[in-house]
Specification:
Layout (H helix, E strand, L loop, with lengths): L3 H4 L52 H36 L5 H30 L6 H27 L6 H18 L1 H7 L5
Helix pairs in contact: 2-3, 2-5, 3-4, 4-5
Amino acid sequence: MSNPSQHNPYGQPPPQGQPAGQQQYGYPQQPPAQPGYGYPQQAAYPQPGMAPAQPQGMPGQVVTARVLLFIAGSVWTLLGLLMLILGVAAEGATDEIPGLGDAGDFLAGAAIIMFLLFLGFGALHIVPASMFGKGGTGTRVTAIIAGSLNALIALLALLSAFSSEGGNPIVALLWLATAVLTIVFCAMGQASAWFNRPRH
């Protein structure tokens, strides 16, 4: 007579103390369950002291500061071009009037100086704004400096508008407000996290 354990498809050996020829009943022994097997994995939560998660996209405040820098830089550049055009036109007009040739040359020279100055202010705003996507702390500091200079000039324009009779301070107020917002948005913690994020 053949051994029943030979026909057992599970090949379970008989327990100790049980004769080898005795037939076993019941289900085959299941392997021990693995820890966590069959259950969904729990999400990992940040523990105290861990570094905060890095921003996946440019924060809204940083995007707003970037747009304001682009706008301010464009306005400065357009003002520089306007100064250059006015200087060239003034030089041409004074050349036709006898005795005013030197005055025309002076106006043209002053217009060129103002054009270069305004163009520099425009570049000071546009260049860091264009580097917000890949720039680091230096880009952020440059943007804050540009916003500070812009706010200072806007404050002087506002004081001049209030001191002069019939002056309209609305434009100067808007100018100052956008410059201050640029500084605040670039100085916030989200901006710091964005510019200090790891780059691969």
